[in-house]
Amino acid sequence: MQNLINCNYEHELAYCFHNIDNRGLLIDREKKEHVRTQVQKELDDKCSFLSNLWNMQVYVGRDNEPDDKTKSINLNSSKALPEQLKALGYDIPKVRKRNEETDEYEMKDSIGELALVKTLADPNRWPNPQAGDGIKALLECKEIITFRNRYINARLHRDIYYSAHNVAATVTGRRGSKKNIFGFGGNDQNFPSRGRLADLWKECVIARPGRIFLFVDQKSAEDWPVQALSNNSVALDEMRRGVNRHYKFASEIFNIPVDTLKAIRTNKSGLYTPEQQLDAEMKYYMGKKGRHANNYGMQPPRFSESLAAEGGFTVPVDSCKHILNVIDRLDPNVKRVFHKYVQEELSKPTHMLRTPLGRERQFLGLRSGEKNYATFNEAYSYIPQSTVGDNTGLAVRYLEALYSYVVQDGHDSIVQEFPDMESEVRRVYTSTDEAFNRDITFHNGVVVHIPIEGAFGYDWKHKVTFENYNEDEMIKAYRECKEKYGTQQVSEVSVGNC
Asked: Mapping DSSP to helix (H, G, I), strand (E, B) and coil, where does residue 435 land?
């Protein structure tokens, strides 16, 4: 195994991220205020929907408290809301919480995301078949409130969204980020990625005048380490040939030919309705999420909850079991080779896992006679997540030694912002290709080289992508992006340094 991860690497990376922190991301002030208005309207509409559904006034915050308090629900009241939901007929599950005084875990009432997701995922907990819409709307309200507080209400300095990164924030080596010591900005690694709220925010994050963004992702990032550890030569060969394995899984799960699913999802012929496209997108999503769940040992009940939380729809536990069984049949080495290897390593006296890049972690939480799902699930994800995160970190360190263009790290991706010139595009192409040009050798001798893909944009929403990372496609995408979006006007902003 390579030993690339050491104290020198961590110290150098900390210095790199100190400089990245000082650059920040430029926010379009006028667009942000427009989003604030839209978000408030959406929150008001959701509260109005819940008020009609539950036949009582639903509001957010004490400032909006109605005169008649007897028939009202404050969505910000973490103490009163569980009892009010129970009074409406919902069976809200208890969740494990740590008692700060005794340091022991207890089962307590909660209206946190986990409890609500468990409720949404199980129709038996609803007072009637339509009551699930209420929990879904409640989750959406909480998402909107969190989005507003974290991003729309984030303090900016000269229209710059700053972050403070910590290179030792996680046990996997992935960086963590939060608002800086002066209270500006926030976590730039967990910007919302899907849905309407995500698009609203992405349009606010803009390149500085005269510059352009290059977004680079590792393709099928964590699946490379999983299949290498599984010694799955067939899967690795498919990935090297650029085969999209999500289609393969979705095809088997729903008994639909791959070509048909692709044709409906892309709808290049224009023959399919939006409803058919949405159905195809859902099937593809199930193939993707099912693969991820199987890789990390997720059980059907937890998978059902995950789909409810991320996708916003209810999938019965039996259906989730079927999805995982199909993927296990297609990818048997994941459990029989990869998971078995992790279990054997954790059973040794050292309880140690070591990544191919040299990072180590001990797992001391195994209990004799128990299934230890939580510990094993965390262990299954450790090597893939750590390997991909360190692959990104090594790339950032390499690029920062050449120039000061990196503005964001997304664990398996980076964003660079550089002068909007074709000569600079070619320079950045070469350096970024070299930064991720790394053979990773696993304990079983399997060697992988994680490929990258990219996109150009003048904001985080409107992008022109290129899947194959080569200079010709990159220049083609750059010229297309410049032609489509380069002349768009942005509102007047105060520009920070980059």
From this structure: helix
